[in-house]
Design a protein that fits this description.
Elements lengths: L14 H5 L4 H15 L2 H15 L3 H9 L3 H12 L28
Helix pairs in contact: 2-3, 3-4, 3-5
Length: 110
Amino acid sequence: MKRTMKRADHKCTCLTCQAHPHSAVAKEHRAINRVLLALNEKSRRRFAGLLALQWGHGGVERLNQITGLSHPTIRRGRDEVQRVERRTERSRIRQAGAGQPAVEKNIPAS
């Protein structure tokens, strides 16, 4: 059985969005969060990493406030965007062996 978790829409905690929720900056932050909702884990991380690269110094902290993604996740996405991906990793979302372990039934020996 495949479990799918829907990520909740994050409310930006930056001062601009708090003070002026209808400003152009607040609309941009809501748009970023709407895009993140549609992406899988790997794409979400890389999108945030790309934005952090574009915004330069302070981009990771700013994206943390806007998206709610952790600093290590954003930094990892930034690093992934900058390096060339091997062919075997292209279709993977998580690293080999990562994720929840398979559930097996324990049948006691009689």
